[in-house]
UniProtKB/TrEMBL annotation:
Gene3D superfamilies: 3.30.390.30, FAD/NAD(P)-binding domain. One of its GO terms (molecular function) is monodehydroascorbate reductase (NADH) activity. It catalyses: 2 monodehydro-L-ascorbate radical + NADH + H(+) = 2 L-ascorbate + NAD(+). It is an enzyme of class 1 (oxidoreductase). Belongs to the FAD-dependent oxidoreductase family. This is monodehydroascorbate reductase (NADH). It comes from Ipomoea batatas. The keyword NAD applies.
Amino acid sequence: MAGKSFKYVILGGGVAAGYAAREFSKQGVKPGELALISKEAVAPYERPALSKGYLFPEGAARLPGFHVCVGSGGERLLPEWYTEKGISLILSTEIVEADVASKTLISAAGESFKYEVLIIATGSTVLRLSDFGVQGADSKNIFYLREIDEADKLVEAIKAKKNGKAVVVGGGYIGLELSAVLRMNNIDVTMVFPEPWCMPRLFTASIAAFYEGYYENKGVKIIKGTVAVGFDTHPNGEVKEVKLKDGRSLEADIVVVGVGAKPLTTLFKGQVEEEKGGIKTDAFFKTSVPGVYAVGDVVTFPLKLYNEQRRVEHVDHARKSAEQAVKAIFASEKGTSIDEYDYLPYFYSRAFDLSWQFYGDNVGETVLFGDNDPKSPTHKFGQYWIQNGKVVGAFLESGTPEENKAIAKVARVQPPALSLDEMANQGLTFASKI
């Protein structure tokens, strides 16, 4: 099969790939120079919409409504946008072999793609229960959520199992967001996770207590400290029961699994330097191989604010790292320079009528402020993290745009902390004065 050659290739079809394509266009890429290769069948889209809006019972998000770059207030890059810009959008094409020495990618169909400059934007893939050897993990109606075709299958299952029972395995982002949207679809939901509280990588026990109480008030049952170890099925292969390690069994018409993700670095093993599970880059997202850049979830990069190498799985970093890499490519070609990537970690979520944002680092002592009663009509509360006498992180539920900007500034500036009691008393006022 004849090969194709491009000056630039973006490998991946997620958020980072879409934002990279937009930045290439801004930088003046010429028609025919750039290709975007994705194994998905649709142009890049804002992945968070799958867990936040796609499953709504009414007014659900649908393509083309959430193609990139609407998630950050930009124009939607519809498939025809790529055509208009002379960018080759190569969909439904899985790359199975990459050779950085010969600058060649090979697809599952045997087609070869040559490049001069490569951006690796392969993202993450979900961890599956079969990865842990869970018995019956291949039963029907067990769902994961990473790509749009998986979301479509879950939508169909929700319709087919109207007023049915769902077990959500995992208490992180996906577990919390999907438990909420399943309840909104009038599904009976039980959430199961092994940790002592939900979202343990970010939440403290006091933050988690609010969300667990709020979810229970909405009818979500929560079982902590155990894991799914197997599934019983109906004769048609559909899941019937979830067996837990503590001996309990839960009836289920639908099982949704959100137990984490792993970066898709396999194609480049042994060819580029890795660190902390990701592809190691500098502050311009250059890898150890000349002409090869990497962005988004797959990257371990210098987090300047904390003077350490870190990997960040989040849409905000996917967008910003993609833009930085493309700017760096063009600066390199012109012999100019750009500023190093200086990222402020940022995470957010929306579920039910809740909306939280977090900025910075969640290390050190903590101070809770505001009203974190799950039954409160306002439920506005937050938390500061304090290390070495400085405020290094801030969390806020139900903040206004101005209040969210204030906590972001606190995390960036890292002002000296007051006494813990004084911080608790001042609450948001402390942030607004920075």
